[in-house]
TrEMBL record:
PANTHER family: AB HYDROLASE SUPERFAMILY PROTEIN YCLE, MONOACYLGLYCEROL LIPASE. The keyword Hydrolase applies. Keywords: Hydrolase. One of its GO terms (molecular function) is hydrolase activity. Residues 29-342 form the AB hydrolase-1 domain. InterPro entries: AB_hydrolase_1 (IPR000073), AB_hydrolase_fold (IPR029058), AB_hydrolase_sf (IPR050266), Epox_hydrolase-like (IPR000639). Transmembrane segments: none annotated. Pfam families: Abhydrolase_6. This is Alpha/beta hydrolase.
Amino acid sequence: MTAITSIKIQTSRLRTHVLVSGPQDGVPVLFIHGNCSSARFFEQTMAALPAGFRAIAADLRGYGDSEPAPIDATRGLRDFSDDLAALLQSAELGLKGRVHVVGWSVGGGVAMQLAIDHPELVGKLVLEAPMAPYGFGGTKGTSGEPCFADFAGSGGGTANPDFARRLKARDASEESATSPRKVMNDFYFKPPFRVEKEREEFFLAEVLKMVVDDAHYPGDTTTSANWPGVAPGTRGVNNALAPKYVNLSGFAKIPPKHDVLWIRGDGDQIVSDTSLFDFGFLGKLGAIPGWPGDDVYPAQPMVAQTRAVLDAYKANGGSYREEVLPNVGHSPHIEAHDTFVAEIVRFFG
């Protein structure tokens, strides 16, 4: 898209691929992508912002065209958030003051971690279909209590091995339910929604740039004596999402200076209280044998966990608004583009 410039910026942490648009002195907005995607998923959103905004979108390490530095999962999301903090303070971007942040999916968690650790850099926050504050898998209840002490059911071992194999092989087919193209169309969006063919190929090419190994996606694996038999390792992104290492409940206690817009689709199958990627819910459906039952391992209430943390933030003087878009899946900025842009522009003022 001609209004967007692609650059690479060397920070103290890594060489980051960045998309920028808008005037140098515009109101800065940082877009953070999620797992199995890249900054280019935000190009249409960036191009649609009115004059006066400066949009910035970066590929996280291991994604898109950024340097594939390894991911230390024991730091939770901090490898990503610290990378972005270094980027925002780079002389090449030349930013002054706070930056508004839009975080999608895992990017929503990264945005919250950025606000927790670097509050002086962050203005308003848009959490778009954000991951739960207690990570992905292995917890129950709105306070994120672990189902088992070793956080079984989360981490690198939860990724579908055939999906990971197809990613590594750069499989562009649609021959299997685990083909990246099929997964994107079935779960990033709410069927029958589908982007136009040329754009689909563009998105898929970005997904297939992901680094697939133990240090990136999905990460290393550890076996567990507890159901479903896997627990978090120490490397890679899916382990970084494990509740053993990530806990964003501290967002509720930061200075209440970051107004929050939480925007999500009512048809999201990825981040949901009945997520089709959560072992607890899959076990209840009978898709994974040996499920120990609701008392031991219920479905993770991802949406309810997010709402509980944001309610606590509000009780401490913060502000948030929840916007639920009808007939939309996991990607409101793509599926309901015009509505999404209008919402964030109004929110940023």
